[in-house]
């Protein structure tokens, strides 16, 4: 099965809808102040499915449950 390269999305635009971005700590997801989506993530007003990867600058992000981006490492060059 062919693996697709992550989409390069640039940096978050403060005027656009972008889901929260976290490091690997699951307890960060439980903040009562967060307004989380379920089933998708957004980056600069673009909707991504759970499990999709994007490159935001040098960060490789994965869309996870609760509609949050989690840093998975560094983007491939």
Total separate domains: 1
Secondary structure category: mainly beta
* Largest sheet descriptor: 5 strands, mixed
Strand content is: 35-45%
Note the total helix count.
0
Helix proportion: under 10%
SSE string = EEEEEEE
Question: Please, could you describe this protein's structure?
Answer:
This protein starts with 6 loop residues before the first strand and ends with a strand. It is globular and about 30 Å long. It has one domain (7-74). The chain is mostly beta strands and 77 residues long. The protein has no helices and 7 strands.
Which keywords apply here?
38% strand; 7 strands; 77 residues; two-stranded antiparallel sheet; 5-stranded mixed beta sheet; mainly beta
Quick structural overview:
The protein is mainly β and 77 residues long. It is built from no helices and seven strands. It has strands at 7-8, 21-22, 40-43, 46-49, 53-56, 59-64, 68-74.
Per-chain topology:
Layout: E1 7-8, E2 21-22, E3 40-43, E4 46-49, E5 53-56, E6 59-64, E7 68-74
Parallel strand pairs: 1-5, 2-7
Antiparallel strand pairs: 3-4, 5-6, 6-7
């Amino acid at each position: 099965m062919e693996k697709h390269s992550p989409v390069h999305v640039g940096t978050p635009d403060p005027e656009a809808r972008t889901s929260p971005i976290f490091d690997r700590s699951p307890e960060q997801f439980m903040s009562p102040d967060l307004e989380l989506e379920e089933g998708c993530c957004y980056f600069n007003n673009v909707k991504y499915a759970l499990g999709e990867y994007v490159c935001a600058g040098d960060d490789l992000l994965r869309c996870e449950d609760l509609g949050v981006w989690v840093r998975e490492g560094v983007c491939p060059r």
